[in-house]
Structure formats: structure tokens, C-alpha cells
Amino acid sequence: MVAVKEELAARLAELRQKNPHAYPRDYAALLGTTEAELTPVFYPERAFELPDLEATFAALAKLPRVKLMARTAFAVFELFTRVDDGRQAGALVLKSDNCFVALNTAALGRVYFLAPAAEKEKAAFLVFDKNGAAALKIYIEPDGFDAALLKMPAARVTGADVVALLEGVRAGSVPMTVDTPRRLIEAAAAQKLPLGFELATDAIAVYMKHTPVKIADARGWFNILDENFNLHLKEEAILNIETGAAMRLIGEAGETIKLWSLT
After folding, report:
1. Cα–Cα distance between 36 and 130 in angstroms, integer?
2. Fold (CATH) for 165-262
3. Is 93 left (phi over 0), alpha (psi -120 to 50) or beta?
4. CB 131 within 8 A of CB 58
5. pLDDT tens-digit map of 128-177
6. Closest Cα partner for 57 from 70, 68, 48, 46?
7. What Rg, from alpha-carbon coordinates, does the chain have?
8. What's the pLDDT at 177?
9. Domain 47-87+105-157, classified CATH 3.40.1570.10, yes or no
10. Percent share of the chain, pLDDT over 70
């Protein structure tokens, strides 16, 4: 195992010399491995595997604020909020007035604590699904980490239909009257109306509610850049858009997010 990690580290070093600005997921694809397997190699002496996600969620609920981040290849949404934790229908849950996150522990893979590289950087929890893809990232202040979490025994694993749980947390919605996410977001900002942002897989369901204020284009991304919420959307990477009760954005790999126009 040590020899495999050393070989992976050497190959990674070669790639980083050629392209120092790629994301870990990009390096992982080039190396024929997963982002979860690459994480302790990419962040040597900074990534520590966590055995009990339930205990981690309980610790997060004690903090004044966390940053929740969910992503696909074409979209990233982030919310800064205080959260409560618990279990619901077998799922691990983090929730606030503006968000609901449910994890199916039976479909999850590794979970890491990532120590900050510098004094002013945030620490992070990296949650991966069984395929080794990033499911959720949670950022906290460096002094908010409880080192006892590293010594917890492995938690029990339970299955849960996390997608079904979203039916009970969405606010009322209205049918789509526009045909692109840009037009939807611009209209919501102009009319000061809330939107719902949803990502759901077998492993994780994330729902965030926000009324956009500051929207801007930057570096090929269409963005919401507000104090407590960010959205980064690469429109050219959206393969298909379906409208109805929600607007479904589908990427080349079949990744899907939904946008809801709320009442």
C-alpha cells in the first residue's frame, strides 16, 4: 500500500509540474484513480480519514456557521449558515431555514478532515460517495475542529431514500416561465423572488433556498455572488434543459441539478 501511494505521488508530481492549476478531480481522472483515493496523496499530512460522520455532524451543529458546498461538473452552489443535525428516515441530516442536506450512509465512501494549509485558511470535511466522487464539502474555521472525531469508532451504516426526503422540505413552487437558468436567475433578482437549488443522487440530497441579489459573469462562469450564498454555473457545459415544475439542468455525464421558482 505504501509503495502504491509513493508511485501515485510521483505520477501526481509530474502532472502538477505540467499543469499546476488543475483540480484534484482532474488529476485523478488522468491518473486513472478516484478523487477519494487521491485525496491523502494530494494533501499529504493534511487529510485525515473520519470514521463516524454522525459524530461529525453533531460537532458541526455546535458551530456558529459552516459553509456547505455541493457541485457537479457544470455547477457549484455554496451556502454559509448555522446548521442543526439529526437523523430522518435513516438519513443523516444537516438543516437550517435555508437548506436541507441528507446523506445515505449506505451509498457513501470515505470521509476526510482536511486541515488548513495556512493560518487564515478554513478547515474542511470532504465527503465522497462509493464511486470516489466528491458528494459534499463542508468548510469551517480552523479552531472549530474537535480532534476527538479522529478517534471515534466506525459508525453504523444505514440505507435511506434521500431523494424522497426532499419532497417534504421544498417550499411552494410555480411553473417555469423562462427557458434558461440565466433568465430565471435574472428575473428572480429583478423581482426579489426566492429560488430553490437542488442536487440529488443516491448518496446525497442537497436543497438550498436563496433570493439572488448580485449576479455577474466571470471567467466563463455565470455567478450569484451574495454574502451568504454563491452559485457558479458553466452554461456551455449544460447539455440539456428541461422545464416544468422545476428547471432541470443536465450535464454531459448525466449529472443533474434542479432550479425551482418559489412562492
Report:
1. 9
2. Heme iron utilization protein-like fold (3.40.1570)
3. beta
4. no
5. 999 999 999 999 999 999 999 999 998 888 999 999 999 888 878 888 88
6. 68
7. 19
8. 87
9. yes
10. 98
